[in-house]
């Protein structure tokens, strides 16, 4: 999971992933919006491939890149687990805040 988060830590790579959610694309199309030399951009693609986020294949003279959605599974599981923990904590905090408000407010809200 560390390699996935490292791969996604860079805005250029996140932009590539975002674009690939719409379908595979050739390297030149992916590189076009980014102001960098092609060899530098290819390093970003290599980092994404190392993390398993994308795959690439040669088609004629082009290198086509595709997203590998299953690579996000472990991170999604971890994030969901963290979200449940924090939602539970926030729900308990809200309950405490409501109890304190009810105990200290001489004019409770009229609940109709």
Q: How would you describe this protein?
A:
The structure is a single chain. The protein folds into two domains: 2-69, Winged helix-like DNA-binding domain superfamily/Winged helix DNA-binding domain (Arc Repressor Mutant, subunit A); 72-104. The protein has helices at residues 2-8, 11-20, 27-31, 38-50, 73-104, and strands at residues 25-26, 54-59, 62-67. The N and C termini lie far apart (50 Å). 12% of the residues are buried. Helix 1 runs antiparallel to helix 4 (38-50). The mean pLDDT is 90. The chain has five helices and three strands, in the order ααβααββα.
Could you give a quick summary of the protein structure above?
The protein is 60% helix and 12% strand.
Work out the strand percent.
5-15%
Tell me which CATH architecture of the largest domain applies here. Answer: Orthogonal Bundle
- Helices and strands, in order, run as HHEHHEEH
CATH class of the largest domain: Mainly Alpha
What does the average pLDDT come to? 90
């Amino acid at each position: 999971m560390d390699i996935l988060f490292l791969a996604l830590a860079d805005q250029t790579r996140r932009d590539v992933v975002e674009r690939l959610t719409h379908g595979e694309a050739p390297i030149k199309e992916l590189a076009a919006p980014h102001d960098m030399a092609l060899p530098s951009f290819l390093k970003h693609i290599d980092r994404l491939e190392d993390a398993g986020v994308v795959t690439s294949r040669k088609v004629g003279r082009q290198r086509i890149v595709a997203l590998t959605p299953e690579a996000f599974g472990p991170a999604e599981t971890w994030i969901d687990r963290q979200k449940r923990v924090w939602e539970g904590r926030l729900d308990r905090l809200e309950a405490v805040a409501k109890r304190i408000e009810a105990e200290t407010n001489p004019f409770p809200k009229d609940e109709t």
